[in-house]
Amino acid sequence: MTTYKRLPVTFERGEGARLWDDQGRSYLDAISGIAVCGLGHAHPEIRDALCDQAGSLLHTSNIYGIANQNRLGDRLCTLAAMDRVFFANSGAEANEAAIKIARLYGNKKGIKNPAIIVMDQSFHGRTLATLSATGNRKVQAGFEPLVQGFVRVPYNDIEAINEITHNNNSVVAVLVEPIQGEGGVNIPDVDYLNKIREVCDKNEWLMMLDEIQTGMGRTGQLFSYQHNNILPDVMTLAKGLGNGMPIGACLARGAAAEVFAPGNHGSTFGGNPLACRVALTVLDVIESQQLTERAAQLGERMRAGFQSKLGEQQGVLSIRISGLMIGIELDRPCGELVTRALDQGMLINVTADKVIRLLPPLIISDAECDQIIDGVCTLIDSFL
Questions:
Q1: Is 109 one of the catalytic residues?
Q2: Are 359 and 30 in contact, with CB atoms under 8 Å apart?
Q3: Distances (CA, A) of 277 to 46, 196, 205, 228
Q4: 210 in active site
Q5: Ordered domains of the chain (ranges, CATH)
Q6: Which three-class secondary structure state does DSSP give residue 54?
Q7: Active site includes 143?
Q8: pLDDT of residue 378
Q9: pLDDT at 332
């Protein structure tokens, strides 16, 4: 179906931070499949894990025990200080699980129509429920009636959330991205998540963090909330967790971890032996190669590079960086830069019309990092 407006290129192979198309041309990948391939392409340990697991067991069913799923669940819960995890196949499905947890949590408290606070400019997926939670009218248009039960407030505005505590008794949770990815790499105030945590504690709401784009080392911590020294009640993961193998996860702790009972939720493919084996290997590589720390270091390198070259550039409104999650906002729509970059042998992304978004793999070299800085700055100079 015509759901994608594809760029005029087809890739045949990749290695590390580089891709090669069907004409043999090389490209530097500064978007990682939109924050998916954090370990780059054709990583040898991922390849070996895939091949080995495919030779033993791909799928049984969640009506049986799955050893790799148990190992991955235990490991994620330990790393995130959570209690339980539900495995799905995508970020949207992980967020669906979080939404269902919040609603069931509210119903068990006697709230007839539980509501979830969500943010303007957010993105949580394209299923009907996650689409309804998303704060982007463009992706909602034409799919009405939307799912009810979401209360929208401006991002990075704690007073808007506080106001709701006085006039809405149906709220049971807050669903928020630590950094808005699709919304334009919007980085909130340093204490924003801490203040949301305080409001949720005071009102017995669930604090639910969508870490689908920010998780797995992307921002210089394994999970972005760890910059704030807090714990959410629910956290969702996907993208970088599988490095290209579809997998999603919804983690919960405390009361939120006890909401689901057998029959409340499920997935045919979620948490199968292959996906969980790959995710375990991803965690192994991130830890052994200290890629979380590496992302933080490279983020500062890129901040310094972009600031020196673009800090005084007229037409550049903002440079927003957290680890290897980078947004450069211009004063005009700049979608054409994606094709221009492609012509120059580099993959970038533009989101929110005016924000150049960069999500390079965590394994990128210093030289490749500098190449991205030089290439993007040259594009911006010629565009403005």
A1: no
A2: yes
A3: 9, 35, 34, 30
A4: yes
A5: 11-30+290-383 (3.90.1150.10), 47-288 (3.40.640.10)
A6: helix
A7: no
A8: 98
A9: 98
Catalytic residue among 123, 150, 223, 306: 123
DSSP per-residue letters across 232-301: -SEEEE-GGGTTTS--EEEEE-GGGGGS--TTS---SSTT-HHHHHHHHHHHHHHHHTTHHHHHHHHHHH
Query: In the prediction, which pLDDT does 108 show?
Result: 97
Query: What is the dihedral sign for C-alpha 261, 265, 269, 271?
Result: negative
Closest CA to 266 of 112, 62, 95: 62
CA–CA dist 118, 231 (Å, integer):
18
Task: Find the catalytic residue in 29, 233, 239, 309.
Answer: 239
Angle formed by the axes of helices 67-80 and 273-288, to 10°? 40
Structure-token match 């799905």, residue found: 88
Token pair recorded at residue 145: 């009636």
Contact 94, 249 (CB under 8 A): yes
Helix, strand or coil for residue 173? strand
| List 86, 87, 150, 210, catalytic entry | 210
Kindly give the parts of the chain with pLDDT less than 50. Answer: none
CA distance 87 to 187: 28
Query: What is the tens place of the pLDDT at every residue in 319-362?
Result: 999 999 999 999 999 999 999 999 999 999 999 999 999 999 99
Burial 299-316 (b: 16+ CB within 10 A, else e): beebbebbeebbeebeeb
Residue of 39, 27, 20 lying closest to 361 (CA atoms): 39
Reported as a single tens digit per residue, the pLDDT across 297-324 is 999 999 999 999 999 999 999 999 999 9
Residue type, 140: Q
